[in-house]
Structure formats: C-alpha cells, structure tokens
From TrEMBL:
The species this protein was found in: Oxyrrhis marina
Protein name: Spindle assembly abnormal protein 6 N-terminal domain-containing protein
Domain Spindle assembly abnormal protein 6 N-terminal, residue spans: 38-170
Annotated InterPro entries: SAS-6_N, SAS-6_N_sf
Source organism, top-level taxon: Eukaryota
CDD domains, per the entry: HD_SAS6_N
Length: 197
C-alpha cells in the first residue's frame, strides 16, 4: 500500500511537470554549444570501480549515473557522437566519450564490432536500456584510472560466463567544463523550481 501511494505520488508529480515547457531552460545546456542534439538522457545503474596501482577493484559500488548521448548532424548519419556521464552523488563526476567515423573505425577493428558508425548510437542506447531493464543480465562497469582516463564496459551475464559486448573509452572533463555543467545544473533546477512554484 505504501509503495502504491508513493507510485501514485510520483506519477502525479511527473504529470504535473509535464504541464511545464522546460525547453528554454534545456537549450542553455553547455553540452549543446557545438551544435549537438540530445538523443538520450537517462539514469542507468553503473558499477563504479577505481583502478589502483595494485590493479582494478574486484567489486565496485553500484550507482545511478546520468547518461546523455549527443549527436552532431542527422541521427541516422551522425558526424560526431558524444556521451556524457554525470552523477547526482558527486557534482564533480563528469566524463566524456567522443567519437567520429575515423575513431569509430579504430574501435571497430580493436573490438571486432559488427556494426557501422551509423548504428553506433542505437547500439549504445540498446545496451544502456538493457542495463536498466535487465540489471541481472546486463552490466555497465565503469573503470576509472587515476590519470583521468576511464572505460565503460557493457557486459552480459550468460549465467556460465560474462561476455564483454562493447567498451567505450572516456576521459574526465576539464575543470572549466565541469564548472559550466554544475552551474547549468544548479540554474536549471532553480529555474524549474521557480516555474513550478
């Protein structure tokens, strides 16, 4: 009964938010400054691990990470793809994965991928959604290095074996980018609250 009441409250809050047009606020997102468009923006469960000198952590911490996929150009034939990862638990957590067709080809060769660059966004989108819908079968493991580099591994649990499906290289964003993002997130939340009130 308590869960049902909470679900009803969340639905009514969501429907109340649907009445407002936040597009003007969202257009101020610094991620869009180079002409990219957001095609995916959702929280996904990630296992966060830190690579130390002794080697990677065996077990990391589970955290909801905000995944934003941005595309420059047409979604079906992009010129550039960027994935940004942020966290509500750590405002300074901001990692970026950038890819154009030539860097995708190198990635395709290294990982023996069967998809083309035009299918890359759809592929990542499906994997993120699988991690949300089937967290026991699909895992997103984010391994962070002390030098600012990181890697996101999409892993499928086949019950008898873990199979690595895709790996994406990330880099910690520079301090200035992080500062702009924090300012935008703060101002965005403040503006939305003012609109709702």
């Amino acid at each position: 009964p308590i869960c049902d009441a909470r679900d009803d409250m969340n639905r009514s809050t969501a429907s109340a938010f649907d009445q407002f047009d936040f597009s003007a606020i969202e257009d101020m997102d610094p991620s869009l400054s180079e002409g990219h468009r957001v095609v995916y923006d959702r929280e996904c469960p990630f296992e966060l691990r830190v690579q130390s000198e002794a080697g990677p952590q065996e077990v990391g911490t589970l955290e909801a990470i905000q995944c934003k996929i941005l595309v420059l150009g047409d979604e079906s034939n992009p010129q550039h793809v960027r994935i940004e990862l942020t966290s509500e638990n750590d405002l300074f957590f901001h990692y970026t994965h950038s890819l154009d067709e030539s860097s995708f080809r190198r990635m395709q060769e290294q990982q023996k991928l069967m998809i083309d660059f035009t299918d890359y966004v759809t592929c990542v989108l499906k994997m993120l959604n699988s991690c949300i819908k089937e967290p026991h079968s699909f895992l997103a493991v984010f391994l962070m290095h002390t030098d600012g580099n990181a890697r996101l591994d999409f892993i499928q649990n086949m019950e008898y074996k873990f199979v690595e499906l895709l790996s994406c290289d990330f880099v910690a964003s520079p301090e200035e980018v992080v500062r702009h993002q924090i300012t935008f997130r703060y101002n965005s939340t403040k503006s939305k609250l003012a609109l709702v009130q």
